[in-house]
Amino acid sequence: MNYLLELINRMVGNEQLTRMLFAGLIGLSVVLVVVTLAVLVKGLQSPVQRRLMLIKRGHGVDHRAPPSNLQMMLEQVGQRFSSGETRGASATRTLLIHAGYRSPSAVQVYWAIRLLLPLLLMGIALLALPFIPNMSLLLGGGILAVALGVGWLIPAIYVSSRKKSRMSRLLIAFPDALDLMVVCVESGLALPQAIERVAEEMAVSQPDLAMELALVNAEVRAGVPSTEALKHLAERTGLEDIRGLVSLLAQSIRFGTSVGTTLRIYAEEFRDRRTQLAEEKAAKVGTKLVFPLIFCLWPSFFLVAIGPAIISVFKVFGKI
């Protein structure tokens, strides 16, 4: 507390004015926090407001998984800053869909976290500043700026990492799904029924791909054409290989050619591409191992191999 007073006193230059400003800032912060929490809690406790929010989120009929109070509070905070991205396909919504977040309120929650986390980290940094010895104004400002930047970047880095890992899992699992789909189609099942059967078979081993295929089957059952449902699959996954498969299947359905033959040819190409990708990663291992060898293994090797000889040389010259 005394450290914050000293910082404000350096900027203002008047001790009495510093105390008044400090007390005013504390009072204003407390009032804002109390009012914000009161408004949010009151809005969540109001049956009318809660019902309207549930209908707006798409939970007006299905109440099997109602949102928590924390999630609804984050939505209320985030919808003030993401009103332009809640409608249509935005870059943030596409990123979240590729990462596996398909909730209608995912954009609001994402922006709420990106806005509140920097403030939380800055508050923690402010509380930790008095415990750092020899703290200067420049260093304190740098720590606050770092806390603000880390809080702003962590959600984006986490979502991007989740997107990459999910796309990697889908890319690895897709050739196996194509092989199962070929077997189902050639055994007499139509394409929607084959997709449904593959989703059931892969629900345990590859839940991400099974969920995407189940969504395709649900859209077909709802009346969406198969080609449109497959295009939606390519948009949700973000994989160019799936876009190529969708184009081939659309041409097969349009011109009446064999869907099984198309799936078999593309499955072979997909598997060859996956093998080439694995070989490419294996070829890069040697280059990636150079830096660990130089900085980790070679110093230890030289220390063990040359260390005794160097000690003996020092002993000999010490006697001389």
What's this model, at a glance?
With 320 residues, the protein is mainly alpha-helical. The protein has helices at 2-12, 15-45, 47-57, 69-78, 91-99, 106-128, 137-186, 191-201, 207-221, 226-237, 240-255, 259-283, 285-288, 290-319.
SSE arrangement:
Elements: H1 2-12, H2 15-45, H3 47-57, H4 69-78, H5 91-99, H6 106-128, H7 137-186, H8 191-201, H9 207-221, H10 226-237, H11 240-255, H12 259-283, H13 285-288, H14 290-319
GO cellular component, one term: plasma membrane
Keywords: Cell membrane, Membrane, Transmembrane, Transmembrane helix
Pfam families: T2SSF (PF00482)
| Percent in strands | under 5%
Radius of gyration: 30 Å
What is the mean predicted local confidence, pLDDT? 77
Given the helix and strand composition, which structural class is it? mainly alpha
Shape: flat
Low-confidence stretches: 59-64
DSSP E strands, number? 0
Q: N-to-C terminal Cα separation, in Å?
A: 64 Å
Order of helices and strands: HHHHHHHHHHHHHH
- Total of helices: 14
| Oligomer kind | single chain
Helix content: over 70%
Please give the largest β-sheet.
none
Domain Type II secretion system protein GspF: 178-305
Main location: membrane
Subcellular location: Cell membrane
GO cellular component, one term: plasma membrane
What labels would you give this structure?
mainly alpha, flat, 81% helix, single chain, 320 residues
Task: Write a structural description.
- Pfam families: T2SSF.
- It is a single chain.
- The chain contains 14 helices and no strands.
- It has 320 residues and is an all-alpha fold.
- Among the domains are: 1-52 and 86-133; 164-272.
- Helix 7 packs across helix 8 and helix 10 runs antiparallel to helix 11 (240-255).
